[in-house]
Every structure is written in structure tokens, then in C-alpha cells.
């Protein structure tokens, strides 16, 4: 019983320390990078497809499966090629995840036109977004009043 309690206490301590260690809001890769944020209006959104390597992985898996069974008969080689192709393509597709993304054309408050490609669709045409560029691009939906206020501040800056 005492031993079980000790293991449970150690597990709880590890979980608590792990939660504290992962509470940072900035990615480790963001160190020493230029970060800029600005407000923009969404002018247009297009769906895009990211390149998938599942086909190449299936071909490599098929060749590997066939070559692994080269000392068997032709049925063994064919079965190995089929299983290797399915396994290689399926694993690659799982690791790649969703290959759908979105290209946004944005009209920044300062008048610049900016195109960004992101993996999720959070905003629609005519909406206000805050754009954060720090090694990668993130859009977050904002009320129109924030874009209006940023536009007034920009006009006052000139």
C-alpha cells in the first residue's frame, strides 16, 4: 500500500511539473525572430491543397515489399508489393494529416495588399483580422471596431 502511494505521488508530481513547464504562450522557435502584428480586412479567400507525399511513399513501399519477397514466388512478391504500397501510403497520409489550406488576400490598414496561406479557415470576406507574423502566420478574428480604430490611428500618423 505504501509503495502504491509513493508511485501515485510521483505520478502526480510529474503531471503537475509537466503542466507548469508547458504553460508558456510563446513557441520556443519564436526566439530571436522579428515579430509584427497588424490589422487587415479579408478581401478574398481561396481553398488550396498542400502537396502530399503519400503517392511517393506508396511507390517506395511497393518496391520495398516486392524486393523483400524476391526469394519467394511471384505471388509473394505481388502480395508484398501491395501490402508495402498500402502501408507506406497510409502511414504517410496519416502523418501528413489534412492537406487542405486557405489563401487569404488581405487589405492591411496601411493600404498594403498581403497574401497569406494558413491551414484553417477562421475568417470570411469582409471580416477584420489581426495578423501576427513570427516565423509563421496566424489570423485571429477581431471586431470591425478594431480595424476602424487602427485605420484612424494610421491616418493620424501620416
Summarize the helices and strands and which ones pair or pack.
Blueprint: H1 2-21, E1 36-49, H2 54-68, H3 74-96, E2 100-108, E3 113-118, E4 128-133, E5 137-142, H4 144-157
Antiparallel strand pairs: 1-2, 1-4, 2-3, 4-5
Helical content band? 40-55%
Overall average residue pLDDT: 79
The oligomerization state is single chain
Structural class: alpha+beta
Looking at the structure, what is the overall shape? Answer: elongated
CATH architecture of the largest domain: Beta Barrel
Tell me the span between the first and last alpha carbons: 73 Å
In CATH terms, the superfamily of the largest domain is Protein of unknown function DUF1093
Please write the string of helix (H) and strand (E) elements.
HEHHEEEEH
CATH topology-level name of the largest domain? OB fold (Dihydrolipoamide Acetyltransferase, E2P)
**Main sheet properties:** 5 strands, antiparallel
Percent strand equals 25-35%
Number of domains: 2
Count of DSSP H/I helices: 4
Count every beta strand, where a strand is a DSSP E run of 2 or more residues: 5
Strand order of the largest sheet: 3-2-1-4-5
Amino acid at each position: 500500500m505504501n509503495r502504491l502511494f509513493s508511485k501515485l505521488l510521483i505520478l502526480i508530481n510529474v503531471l503537475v511539473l509537466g503542466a507548469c513547464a508547458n504553460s508558456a504562450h510563446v513557441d520556443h522557435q519564436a526566439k530571436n525572430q522579428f515579430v509584427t502584428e497588424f490589422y487587415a480586412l479579408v478581401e478574398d479567400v481561396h481553398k488550396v491543397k498542400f502537396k502530399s507525399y503519400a503517392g511517393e511513399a506508396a511507390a517506395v513501399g511497393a518496391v520495398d515489399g516486392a524486393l523483400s519477397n524476391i526469394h519467394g514466388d511471384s505471388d509473394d512478391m505481388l502480395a508484398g508489393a501491395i501490402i508495402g504500397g498500402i502501408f507506406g501510403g497510409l502511414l504517410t497520409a496519416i502523418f501528413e494529416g489534412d492537406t487542405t489550406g486557405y489563401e487569404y488576400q488581405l487589405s492591411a490598414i496601411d493600404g498594403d495588399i498581403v497574401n497569406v496561406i494558413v491551414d484553417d479557415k477562421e475568417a470570411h470576406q469582409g471580416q477584420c483580422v489581426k495578423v501576427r507574423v513570427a516565423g509563421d502566420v496566424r489570423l485571429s478574428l477581431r471586431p470591425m471596431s478594431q480595424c476602424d480604430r487602427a485605420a484612424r490611428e494610421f491616418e493620424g500618423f501620416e
